[in-house]
What we know:
Elements: E1 2-6, H1 10-21, E2 25-30, H2 35-38, H3 40-45, E3 48-51, H4 58-67, E4 72-74, H5 83-92, E5 96-99, H6 105-121, E6 128-135, H7 145-161, H8 168-171, E7 174-179, E8 185-192, E9 197-204, H9 208-221, E10 226-229, H10 230-234
Parallel strand pairs: 1-2, 1-3, 3-4, 4-5, 5-10, 6-7
Antiparallel strand pairs: 6-8, 8-9
Helix pairs in contact: 1-9, 6-7
Bound molecules: nicotinamide-adenine-dinucleotide.
Residues 6-12, 30-33, 52-54, 57, 61, 75-78, 100-103, 210 line the site of nicotinamide-adenine-dinucleotide.
Amino acid sequence: MNIAIIGYGKMGKEIEKLIEKSNHTLVSIIDSEEEWAECEDELEKADVAIEFSTPSSVVSNIKKCFDRNLPIVVGTTGWNDAHEELKNLCLEKKQSLVWGANFSVGVNMFFAVNKKLAEMMANYPEFDVDIEEVHHTAKLDSPRGTALFLAHDIVKMASSKLGKTESPSMSTPVISSKRISNTPGTHIVSYQSDNETIEIKHVALNRQNFAQGALIAAEWIVPKKGFYSVKDVYDF
Ligand SMILES: NC(=O)c1ccc[n+]([C@@H]2O[C@H](COP(=O)([O-])OP(=O)(O)OC[C@H]3O[C@@H](n4cnc5c(N)ncnc54)[C@H](O)[C@@H]3O)[C@@H](O)[C@H]2O)c1
């Protein structure tokens, strides 16, 4: 598979390392708006683009891939407001996109376990839930996509049980954010009653887990048409 990397920061460089070790070929690297024009010939050869850039450039980058019939894996976060518009555009133009706030296989298992635990906990309102996220100091905004996604699934499971038992804590989970240098990312979901605590925890040891997942998603999206999320890739 011929791959174009869009966004050559920390994640773009991890993906480059993985491509070098794989049987895929890196045909282009784009790290700014200006570089698109210089890389047209290289992009012609690409089967798929992997995009980890910035919230302010991601929407324009996706549209550029649609214009070139280039399937795209989008790892950049912070474009939720544009999802609907881009989904419609993708379907209308018969293009291929898979996005994920977190491509790590372990995190996607963690999401599935979080959902199952929330489903069980929704019947036991004596438990209070909270979510803790720890990231490296360069990540300024908080909470980040993964913590919000965990909270979203907890609220969803709580509201699907409303009418049976209401859990006020699960309806508005508290998210606390810490920033520590050299930490790729830790997420903890804990439920506490007066008598016991249950915690589930995921720790990313480095960025390779995200890059590996993005490469799996790239192989998965190439033969498909449509707008997908990483959940469709792993199907846990
Ligand atoms: N989905 C996941 O699994 C996952 C994992 C890690 C990070 N992320 C997200 O991926 C994004 C990138 O993360 P990072 O740590 O590599 O950031 P980074 O700041 O290290 O790199 C971003 C790169 O994008 C480049 N860029 C800016 N404008 C561009 C444009 N118009 N076209 C192409 N490139 C452009 C910048 O020059 C920079 O090199 C962030 O949104 C981050 O939250 C997602």
